[in-house]
Amino acid sequence: MAGFNTAITGLKAATTDLDVTGNNIANASTVGFKASRTEFGDIYTSAVVGAGSSNTPGSGVTVTDIAQDFSAGTVESTNNNLDLAINGGGYFELADEQGGKTYTRAGAFELDKDGFIVNKTGQFLQGFPVENGVELPLGNLAVTEKESPPQATYEMSLELNIDDRKDASQLLSNYNKDVPASYTYSTTMERVDSLGDSSVIKYNFVEQRPVKEVHTYDFVDGGSGDLSISGFSLNTADFTGPGGTLDATVLGNLQAADPRIFDVVLNQPSAGEIQVIFNSESTQYGNLVTTDVAGGVALTNESITEIAAGEQHIFNFTGGPNYGAGDVIELSVAGVNISIDGGVGGVTAEDIVNEINAQRSAITDSNSNIDTLVYDSANNSLVISYRADAGDIASDSLDMQILSGPVDPFGGAVPSAAAIAPDTEVNGDDSYEGTYRLYAYLLNAGASGEDQTLTIGKAPDPGELGSLPEKGPVLINFNQSSGILSEINGVAVTSNLSVPGLTVQGFSDNDPILANGTDSQDVITLDLSNTSQFASDSIVKNSSQNGYAKGDLIGVSFGIDGEMVASFSNGQNQTLGVVAIATFENQAGLQPVGDTQWAASLSSGSAITNPPGTGLNGTLKSGSLEQSNVDLSEQLVKLIEAQRNFQANSKTLETLNTVTQAILQI
């Protein structure tokens, strides 16, 4: 009777179903496990010659396939960065020591003694190692860097705001790096050498004061009258007038040779003194180079003083010493009428200046650029000084007239309605506005701990031999309308994307430095982009440098794109490789090999490896593991179904046995 064989196939099929379901239940907590299901097919036999298939009772059941469910399991977080999960399609590729490849979704990895990333059975995680920023072919991923070597500082970025409200005139006249009252603002930055030693650079910003620096020399004319200033040759004959004014063309040529020079004045041409005046932005900015000319003028005994940067108009009194006896002198100063009664004995020049000063408030209301009106007794003159920030003032800006009276104190003649021109005019100079001297020092650099002045790009003084930058300050300038940088060390700032950099160099602390990591020049590029001069507190907006000390490995992490990044104690990160994700044309054709792994087969096709997140590959999630996709509730129901099927097939055997016994008893 064929029914016995049919019942036996049913028992075998039900047993296989129980085995598969039991295996699913047993692996409900296995990381990366994929549940399986039993698929059945019926068995029919047919005669070569006979009635149709409709008369064939069937021969039982067979297991056609044990298919796996490759749907994703739940991803759970862990505290281990080396635990990896794939969010999407794909498999981790593993290799054993013989090069055999298997594939898994179980991402519980660890480091072996040699730094390779392995699973619990010692197989190597595959990826694309990275060396010196170059991605290599597929291979074993490993943590090859256990420490991060130091890098010397070769770039600095300093963004700050210097308070525009600070009054530069309150600074001490003599700059001293150790006296805060002599500079406007100061900040420090760390500098690291190539051995990882740290030191400190201090930057001092000194706003130029509203003064002009005067270099005064004694001289004796040897006969030719030739002299040399800042490498430029001129002659005492180029000076004209009683005040020794330098010819305008010659002065322009001299200023082209040395842009710091504002004016040159020669007093007592045959044997006396000569004054070279710097513009106000160049105060304390380098030395003045003068050289002796054979048979010419020998300049000696240099002394350096300062004068106000503002315009001065000097009106000399003539005649006197008393003016307007018995009469009234009517003056107009900046549109303000002033009446001076000469009385019986008249008034002196000083009396006239005092009367003018008595109306100073009204005069300055009319001409706000006026600062002071002073009587110079030594020269018997009225000296009107203007505010320094007014710059160059026109000679007729005061509009001073003698309206009536017996005599003009400034001309000695009968007064006329015409405005009185100043006898001497000292041009004003407001170039100091928005200009700062920047100094740099390496702190505690010397053997005895003294600070070292650094070279930051200052060019040699005009007329000086040599072309290399020298120690000393550089000038930085701000636009007075916008408060942003306009010029650094003589180079214009065209935009915030093209701010000229300064080079900090000249370190003498015997600590090596590798600029750009390649050569041994002790050069640091200083970027002052976004530095401003606004009317708010002086602050550092950003300060950074790219040097760092040696660091030890503190951990490894992975990005969603598969990058394996090593972190070091010095704050540096280094990409060591990229995890490979394998996909298959037919993942259902993968062959299970145990340990939650599969092997490629002819049915699945060869593995296609790419980084996570590319093509059909899922992304990587570090510190997580994919759990089994087994649904226990579903499996328990299947267990009941398999048990029912087994019992039913057993009943078929029991029934067939009863029938057989009945036949035997006939």
Essential attributes:
666 residues, mainly beta, Tick-borne Encephalitis virus Glycoprotein, domain 1, 5 domains, 13-stranded antiparallel β-sheet, seven-stranded antiparallel β-sheet, 48 strands, 37% strand
Structure description:
The chain has 666 residues and is mainly beta. The protein folds into 5 domains: 3-71 and 629-664, no CATH class; 75-148 and 553-626, no CATH class; 155-207 and 432-545, Tick-borne Encephalitis virus Glycoprotein, domain 1 (Sandwich), CATH 2.60.98.20; 211-308, no CATH class; 312-426, Alpha-Beta Plaits, CATH 3.30.70. It has 5 helices and 48 strands. Strands 5, 6, 9, 10, 11, 12, 40, 41, 42, 43, 44, 45 and 46 form a 13-stranded antiparallel β-sheet that branches. Helix 1 (3-26) runs antiparallel to helix 5 (632-664). It is rod-shaped, with a radius of gyration of 48 Å. The model is unreliable at 514-520 (pLDDT under 50).
Q: Which architecture name of the largest domain does CATH use?
A: Sandwich
State the name of the first-level CATH class of the largest domain: Mainly Beta
Distance from N terminus to C terminus (CA atoms, Å) equals 17 Å
What's the name of the CATH homologous superfamily of the largest domain?
Flagellar hook protein FlgE
Strand fraction? 35-45%
